């Protein structure tokens, strides 16, 4: 069953042969359903038709909801959309944002070394590839039984400690060196770092939880959950047309992300095939930060003050230097009174590649809300994720600059941090990380 393939969608510009039913947008926009009619996984069609047949008899006999039951309905485009697991790069990096996400770090259990880690990666890869097609892995728990793939992606990575635990220290990339401390850090070490990283994303909450649970069970005896964070983005179809995401401060967030159509997109986001260590070819490095938003303080600012902090209008994300959302920011632009249109400490000025020797990254976050603290303030913010070819030329210099002079930092608290090496994608029959673990 290859729902996406049957519809013959275009390959993603990432060049991994990936086909998705939703047009990939890389500006933080949860892309809307494609205009093409949705294909339906064969399993689902049979399942729906079979179930409907049974229901028709029962409903007609009861004189109840016969009409509804007589019309077996195809999955919505949201449910039937799929993102191929296999490809040059792992899925979940340049794929469109999904509505639900789980980020999980696992630690290898004592005594579990390279061989057991390799066996786990093989099990995880097989299950992830199966679920990405909307099929159930062996020994399933039926949580996602009625749903299609719902754009499920599963992405795997390795933390620095993995290489010590598996005797693979000589294979640890230099780019995986620990992130430097930043003055804004208030890090909880229990919720930071980890040997193995799994990112699950899907447009359906049950599909996302199903994948998480399957992967956690497959790890039993080899790796245990160290920390887990869950987040969300806007549901596809919630807006009349696809739009750039908003974060929990209400800002349009993701506008100036690198786009796959940019000539330098791959160079910024993915490790070149010629780079060392060789097993990281076509991979990427992800920085994960749990950034709490101090929303009670933020809400005390006027709209004009909030816009000044970012340097963009809140309503439509247009830069304060003029134009619409997609107009390039003019950092030299001035108002009639001669003052800078984009303030000296505006977030977009301080974070811009022009202010950081060209440093750039692909931001692909999830928002989070984990209740309210003892003072009634929301424990909410951004599960910030930055993907780049090398964090020493991406996240690190930009965060250093933000740490010193970003107007937004007064309203943020970085509570957890991790950096993972995410290998390239794999072909059917291979497993993610095979070149490292078998090399
Ligand atoms: C170290 C990198 C960054 C962190 C940490 C970060 C946190 C953070 N950002 C927002 C909101 C917005 N960020 C925007 C732009 C933007 N942010 C970064 C980097 C970090 N942000 C970059 C590189 C850029 C692009 C700058 C540019 O080239 O113009 C924007 C504007 C819209 C956009 O382009 O996406 C917003 C809004 C929050 C809320 C946050 C922490 C919670
Ligand atoms: Fe930002």
TrEMBL record:
One matching Pfam family is Dyp_perox_N
Bias type Low complexity, positions: 29-40
Give the EC number(s) listed in the UniProt record: 1.11.1.-
Return one GO MF term: metal ion binding
Q: Which InterPro entries does the record associate with it?
A: Dimeric_a/b-barrel, Dyp_perox_C, Dyp_perox_N, Dyp_peroxidase, EfeB/EfeN, TAT_signal
Q: Name one GO biological process term.
A: iron import into cell
User: What is the recorded name of this protein?
Assistant: Deferrochelatase
- Give the organism the record lists: Wenjunlia vitaminophila (Streptomyces vitaminophilus)
């Amino acid at each position: 069953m290859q729902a996406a393939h049957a519809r013959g969608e275009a390959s993603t510009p990432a060049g991994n042969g990936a086909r998705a039913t939703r047009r990939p947008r890389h500006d933080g926009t949860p892309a809307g359903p494609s205009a093409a009619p949705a294909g339906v996984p064969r399993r689902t069609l049979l399942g729906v038709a079979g179930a409907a047949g049974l229901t028709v008899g029962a409903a007609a006999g009861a004189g109840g909801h016969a009409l509804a039951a007589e019309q077996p309905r195809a999955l919505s485009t949201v449910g039937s959309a799929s993102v191929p697991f296999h490809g040059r790069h792992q899925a979940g990096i340049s794929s469109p944002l999904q509505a639900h996400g789980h980020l999980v770090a696992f630690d290898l259990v004592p005594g579990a070394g390279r061989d057991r880690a390799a066996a786990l990666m093989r099990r995880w890869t097989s299950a992830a590839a199966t679920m990405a097609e909307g099929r159930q892995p062996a020994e399933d728990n039926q949580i996602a039984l009625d749903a299609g793939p719902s754009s499920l992606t599963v992405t795997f990575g390795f933390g620095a400690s993995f290489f010590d635990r598996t005797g693979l220290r000589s294979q640890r990339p230099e780019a995986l060196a620990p992130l430097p401390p930043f003055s804004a850090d208030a890090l909880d070490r229990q919720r930071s770092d980890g040997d193995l990283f799994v990112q699950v994303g899907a447009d359906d909450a049950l599909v996302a939880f199903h994948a998480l649970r399957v992967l956690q069970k497959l790890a039993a005896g080899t790796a245990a959950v160290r920390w887990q964070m869950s987040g969300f983005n806007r549901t596809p179809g919630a807006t009349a047309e696809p739009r750039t995401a908003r974060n929990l401060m209400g800002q349009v967030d993701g506008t100036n992300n690198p786009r796959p159509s940019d000539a330098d997109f791959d160079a910024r986001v993915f490790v070149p095939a010629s780079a060392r260590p060789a097993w990281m070819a076509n991979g990427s490095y992800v920085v994960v930060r749990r950034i709490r938003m101090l929303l009670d303080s933020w809400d005390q600012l006027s709209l004009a003050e909030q816009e000044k902090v970012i340097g963009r209008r809140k309503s439509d994300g247009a830069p304060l230097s003029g134009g619409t959302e997609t107009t390039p920011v003019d950092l030299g632009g001035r108002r009639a009174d001669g003052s800078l249109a984009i303030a000296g400490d505006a977030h977009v000025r301080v974070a811009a590649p022009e202010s950081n020797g060209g440093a750039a990254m692909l931001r692909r976050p999830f928002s989070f809300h984990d209740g309210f603290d003892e003072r009634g303030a929301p424990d909410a913010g951004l599960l910030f994720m930055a993907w780049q070819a090398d964090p020493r030329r991406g996240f690190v210099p930009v965060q250093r600059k933000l740490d010193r002079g970003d107007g937004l930092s007064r309203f943020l608290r970085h509570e957890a941090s991790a950096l993972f090496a995410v290998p390239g994608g794999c072909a059917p029959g291979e497993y993610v990380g095979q070149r490292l673990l078998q090399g």
